[in-house]
Amino acid sequence: MSSDETNVGVDRMADAEPVPGSAKPDPILVADGVRRSFGGLTAVDVGHLEVQRGTITALIGPNGAGKSTLFNLLTGFDRVDGGRWTFQGGAVNGKSGHRVARAGMVRTFQLTKALTRMTVLDNMLLGAPGQFGERMAGAFLRPVWQRQERENTRRAMELLERFKLVDKREDMAGSLSGGQRKLLEMARSLMTDPAMIMLDEPMAGVNPALVQSLLGHITSLRDEGKTVLFVEHDMDVIMGISDWIVVLAQGRVIAEGRPSDIRSNQQVIDAYLGAQEETAEVGGSDDD
Ligand SMILES: Nc1ncnc2c1ncn2[C@@H]1O[C@H](COP(=O)(O)OP(=O)(O)OP(=O)(O)O)[C@@H](O)[C@H]1O
């Protein structure tokens, strides 16, 4: 799965302690005291979290644990009640999603209705950096933004090729299968050549034939030196692909470690079982 020669980030994890808040040898993201409440409910309350550069880190936890909220906070798509975090050594808390992306930390988004009515290529171009032409339409700058547009299109085509979507470039994004949409979401997030990519349930709604292809893309990104943080429910995927796993329950990090550490961690088992029991008590049967 991992290439030991190229995978410096993973190699450097050897000494990381499998405990909540553990220090990493070369963290790309460091968060402290990140909190978010909704009314009386504390959705996220993360004391200390470090994500190692160049690894695939999974963020897991039972339903309602706070995974999506933490994603939204870190990437500037929700407002924190408290806390700070740095990315590549620079503070990014309080920055808008756009500025966080420019700093090199991007997240994937599910295709909204509006985006499904655009072509695959136009979806890619929307993820492009700069959008210089739109902001500065002055005629004297035309050569500059035309050059940028050409460069964006070249990059989009290169990524569509890589993700095997190039033949679909003129199709409406809404006509893609579930798996192809996930590929497009991933490809689009790479338009800005980010250092870190955050994937929100990359396998949801993907048929088994495309799962392997998506997994291959995720490991390739890591092997090229990018950092991947992903939220996922599929345990086989999580255990098979992750270099490190962070477990959230009721907004807090209750465990961290390699898949082998997490698999046998009693607190993790209890958190999942507890959540299941709560669901059973209210009569639900959420298998999400
Ligand atoms: N905008 C909001 N308003 C009110 N409560 C919210 C809001 N967003 C999230 N919550 C609550 O915060 C808690 C954490 O939700 P979150 O969606 O982050 O969990 P999750 O771990 O991503 O769950 P799932 O695995 O089910 O997607 C839940 O109790 C949820 O109901």
Automatic annotation (TrEMBL):
**Region called Disordered, residue ranges:** 1-26
UniProt-listed SUPFAM superfamilies: P-loop containing nucleoside triphosphate hydrolases (SSF52540)
Q: Which GO terms describe its cellular component?
A: plasma membrane
Give the domain of life.
Bacteria
| Positions of the ABC transporter domain | 29-275
Q: Which keywords fit this entry according to its UniProt record?
A: ATP-binding, Nucleotide-binding, Transport
One example of the protein's molecular function in GO is: ATP binding
Pfam families for the chain: ABC_tran (PF00005), BCA_ABC_TP_C (PF12399)
Q: What is this protein called?
A: ABC transporter ATP-binding protein
Q: Which organism is it from?
A: Nocardiopsis sinuspersici
